[in-house]
Amino acid sequence: MASVSFDHVWRRFGPHTAVADLCLDIADGDFLVLLGASGCGKTTSLRMLAGLDEPSEGEIRIDGRVVNKVPPGERDVAMVFQSYALFPHMTVEGNLTFGPRMRRENKAATRARIAEVAQTLELTPLLGRRPAELSGGQRQRVALGRALLREPKLFLMDEPLSNLDAALRGQMRAEIVSLHRRLGITTAYVTHDQVEAMTMATRIAIMFEGRLHQAGKPAAIFDDPASLRVATFIGAPQMNIVDGQVLQADGVTMLACLGTTCRPAEGLVLRAPAGSPVRIGIRPGDIAFSPPHPGAAGFSGAVEFLEPMGSETFATMRCGRETVVVRAPGRTPLRLGERVTLYLDGRFTYAFDAEDGRALIDRSRFGLADLAARRLPA
Ligand SMILES: Nc1ncnc2c1ncn2[C@@H]1O[C@H](COP(=O)(O)OP(=O)(O)OP(=O)(O)O)[C@@H](O)[C@H]1O
């Protein structure tokens, strides 16, 4: 097991900066997910950690030792790629044996380890098959098995599930998480899929255009996004963003938007003076068709579009100049064009600076569970 530290790491390709001033610690045993849209520098960061690429500036440390110049083979890391990279002409067993054979490891010990790893990954009945005779998920398990045979200090995974269909992706997510729980190997995992990040990570690091924007536990990033950009990247459907204003009445700070006003939960500090224009964020699940508490802020909306998903329905509502998506229970009777009253819950309403998008409400002291327990006075 190992800890990792990126210390002011830059990677430039000619005039292009792929990674800018990355400072990030991965603790021993963490499952860190590097999350961001295509081209934001995730793979470059992982490749530098693997030793396949070198920082232009800054230091990468594994267990406190600077590894900038250490070749990949001496870092004790194992990498799993999106493309599995299996030998097509070899059986599963042949693919698993290849690495230990190249490393001239003891044959009997290798056989025992392969049996153990195959058991862990439920590959035992497949040892005699070739990759072409396996499903995508089974191939990915072989690739994982090969990495596991190394017993690395560090596991590095670059979008390992992106070639799989939705059902297999879900299954492999669970398998990788349970493997990590059992073995506790420090893992850095790259993806652009926020569901993978939220469900697998012990910590998430979100990057945009080469820069780290926020790192933290999944729930903390979801509850307390540092910026509008992070807020709209995490959560599906995406957080609604509407124009709003800070109001001050009788010493109470309120947020005005969608033709109504709401009050952030008591104890939350709003870092913007009265009168400031702000961008207000409300997650689709935090707009309700009935008042969440007495005196909740109501506003009117017309049903513009419905996406019935079975257990829930996403309703796009036209509210004056703004449009918001509401997550409603599956059997909510809604008709296109119908006008209904919607309710905001100020406890879960976010505010962002209208200019630079930074979060204006400090939620770090309360998680969502705490907020749910904090009822507003009627
Ligand atoms: N060898 C290279 N030469 C020039 N530019 C590169 C090189 N490798 C990466 N880049 C650029 O650096 C940026 C970051 O690339 P990187 O592959 O790290 O992004 P990513 O977030 O992993 O994207 P994806 O999810 O599409 O793999 C991109 O703009 C990419 O075009």
From TrEMBL:
Domain (ABC transporter) ranges: 4-234
UniProt xrefs under PROSITE patterns: ABC_TRANSPORTER_1 (PS00211), ABC_TRANSPORTER_2 (PS50893)
InterPro entries: AAA+_ATPase, ABC_transporter-like_ATP-bd, ABC_transporter-like_CS, ABC_transpr_MalK-like, ABC_transpr_MalK/UgpC-like, Mo/tungstate-bd_C_term_dom, NA-bd_OB-fold, P-loop_NTPase
Entries under CDD domains matching the protein: ABC_MalK_N
One Gene Ontology MF term: ATP hydrolysis activity
SMART domains: AAA
Record flagged with keyword Nucleus: no
Any one Pfam family match given in the protein's UniProt record, by short name: TOBE_2
Keyword field: ATP-binding, Cell membrane, Membrane, Nucleotide-binding, Translocase, Transport
Assigned GO CC terms: ATP-binding cassette (ABC) transporter complex, substrate-binding subunit-containing
Top-level taxon in the UniProt lineage: Bacteria
GO biological process: carbohydrate transport
Family affiliation: Belongs to the ABC transporter superfamily.
This protein's name: ABC transporter ATP-binding protein
Species of origin: Acidisoma cellulosilyticum
